Amino acid sequence: MNTNTRKYMIYFFGALGGLLYGYDTGVISGALLFINNDIPLTTLTEGLVVSMLLLGAIFGSALSGTCSDRWGRRKVVFVLSIIFIIGALVCAFSQNITMLIASRVILGLAVGGSTALVPVYLSEMAPTKIRGTLGTMNNLMIVTGILLAYIVNYLFTPFEAWRWMVGLAAVPAVLLLIGIAFMPESPRWLVKRGREDEAKKIMEITHDHQEDIEMELAEMKQGESEKKETTLGLLKAKWIRPMLLIGVGLAVFQQAVGINTVIYYAPTIFTKAGLGTSASVLGTMGIGVLNVIMCITAMILIDRIGRKKLLIWGSVGITLSLAALSAVLLSLGLSTSTAWLTVVFLGVYIVFYQATWGPVVWVLMPELFPSKARGAATGFTTLVLSATNLIVSLVFPLMLSAMGIAWVFAIFSVICLLSFFFALYMVPETKGKSLEEIEESLKNRFKKKKNRQNQMLNERTS
Questions:
Q1: What is the pLDDT of residue 231?
Q2: Among 155, 306, 390, 417, which residue carries the largest CB count within 10 Å?
Q3: What is the pLDDT of residue 82?
Q4: Are 351 and 262 in contact (CB under 8 A)?
Q5: pLDDT digits (tens, 9 = 90+) for 275-333
Q6: Single pTM value for the model
C-alpha cells in the first residue's frame, strides 16, 4: 500500500465514527413513523426514544475525552465501535419501550464518544494548512450518515420495516472495527508520551514536506516542555476559562438553532404541514442530499474564508430562512402549498447551516484547547453540545403540540439571531495557525484582557 493510499485511509477511518453518529441520528426520523405499530408510543415516550440517545451521548462525551488523553485515541475508537454494534443490534431486536430506550442510551455512549474524539483525532493528524478542510470531514461523515439513514428509511418505508432501519447501523460499525487496523495513534499524543520517533513516522505519511514535519514536531516538543500542569489543573487555569466559555457557546448555539429538530423530526414536520408519508420521507431525503452538498462546500471554503466569517454569514442565513418560514406559516396557515414552502425554506436553512455552523464548530472546538487537555476539554464541550441537543429534542415535540410549527420556528429564528452576535464578538479566527500558535495567541489574548482589567481597577482606586 503506497503512502497516499494509507494517508487517505487514515483520514477516512478516522472520520468514520462521524458517519455512525449521523446514521443513528437520522434513522430515527423514519423509524418513528412505524415503531408505534409494534411498540405503543405516547408524545412523551416518542421524545424519550429520540432523546435518550443524547443522554447516553452526554456520558460518552465525558468519558471518552479523559480516556483518550490517558490511553490514546486509537484504543478508545476500538471500544466505541463495539458499543455501536451492540447498541444497533439491541435496538433492532427491542420488544418493549424499556428495551428500546436502553438501546438508544447504549448507542448514545458511542455517539457521544465519537463526537468528542473524531474532531480531536482529525485535528491532531492534519497538517496545519489543511486542518480546517480535514476537520470538516467529521461533519461530512455525519451528514453522509444522515443521508444514508434517509435513503434506508425511504427504501424500507413501503414495508414499515423500522427494525431493519435501525439495525443496519451495525454494518458501518463493523467497518470501523476493521478500519482500526489502518488507524495510527495521534502524533501529538505520542509526543506527549515521549514517543517522538513513532510520531515522526506517522507524520511522514500525512505530511508532504520534511521541513513541515520538523517544524511541527519542534512546536509540539516546545509546547509540551512548557506544560507542567496536570490535565485537571489546565482545565482549572484562569487563562483556559475564556476558551472553555467560547467552546461552550459554540456547542450550545450549534444545537440550539434547531438543526436536529429538522434531522429527527423532518418527516413528522412535513406530515403535520400537509404532506403524505411517502412525500414526507422523500422531502426529508432531499434535505439529506443538501446536507452533503453544503458540507463539501464548507470543506472548500473553510481554509480560504476562515472560521469566524463563515459563522457570521451562516447566522444571517439561518435567521432569515427560519423567520421567513415562520411568517409564511403564521400568515397562510397549513396547506399543500405551504407544506412545500416549508420544504423550500428548511432547504435554505440547511444550505446556510451545513456550510457554516455544522462543520465549523467541529473544527473550532479542538483548536481552542491546549494539547494536554484537548481530549478532556473537547469532551466537556461536546458534553454540553449533547446536553443542549437532549433538551431541544425533548422539548420540541411538546412545543410542536402546544404552539404549532410557526411559533416554534419563530423561537428558533431568535436563537439564530443571538448566534450572530456571539460569532461576531466572541469567536477568534484560527485559520492558517498551528495548534500551538493558536494556544499561544489565546494565552496572550487572555493576558492582555487581564492587564486591561487590572489597569482599570488601579485607575478607579487611585
A1: 53
A2: 390
A3: 93
A4: no
A5: 666 666 676 777 778 878 888 888 888 888 888 999 999 999 999 999 998 898 888 76
A6: 0.71
pLDDT confidence of residue 446:
65
H/E/C letters for each residue in the chain? CCHHHHHHHHHHHHHHHHHHHHHHHHHHHHHHHHHHHHCCCCHHHHHHHHHHHHHHHHHHHHHHHHHHHHHCHHHHHHHHHHHHHHHHHHHHCCCCHHHHHHHHHHHHHHHHHHHHHHHHHHHHHCCHHHHHHHHHHHHHHHHHHHHHHHHHHHHHHHHCCHHHHHHCCHHHHHHHHHHHHHCCCCHHHHHHCCCHHHHHHHHHHHCCCHHHHHHHHHHHHHHHHHCCCCHHHHHHCHHHHHHHHHHHHHHHHHHHCCHHHHHHHHHHHHHHHCCCHHHHHHHHHHHHHHHHHHHHHHHHHHHHHCHHHHHHHHHHHHHHHHHHHHHHHHHHCCCHHHHHHHHHHHHHHHHHHHCCHHHHHHHHHHHCCCHHHHHHHHHHHHHHHHHHHHHHHHHHHHHHHHHCHHHHHHHHHHHHHHHHHHHHHCCCCCCCCCHHHHHHHHHHHHHHHHHHHHHHHHHHHC
Do 154 and 29 meet the contact criterion of CB atoms below 8 Å apart? Answer: no
Q: How far apart are CA 267 and CA 277, in angstroms?
A: 7
At residue 318, the pLDDT reads: 94
Cβ–Cβ under 8 Å, residues 446 and 246:
no
Rounded to whole angstroms, the Cα distance separating 131 from 302 reads: 9
> Looking up cell 477511518, which residue turns up?
13
Residue pair 303/129 in contact by the 8 Å Cβ criterion:
yes
Rg (CA), the chain: 22
Which stretches in the chain have pLDDT values below 50? none
The string of pLDDT tens digits covering residues 100-132 is 999 999 998 988 888 778 777 877 787 777 777
- Distance between CA atoms of residues 420 and 329, nearest Å: 24
Distance CA 285, CA 147 (A): 7
Between CA 115 and CA 177, with CA 97 as vertex, the angle to 5 degrees is: 35
Q: Which three cell numbers stand for residue 258?
A: 434547531
The pLDDT value given to residue 325: 86
- Contact call for residues 286 and 266 (beta carbons, < 8 A): no
Q: Which residues contact 278 (CB under 8 A, 6 or more apart)?
A: 157
Other Cβ atoms within 10 Å of 326 Cβ, number: 21
Does the CA dihedral 186-383-439-227 come out positive or negative?
Answer: negative
- Of 208, 257, 206, 283, whose CA–CA distance to 360 is shortest? 257
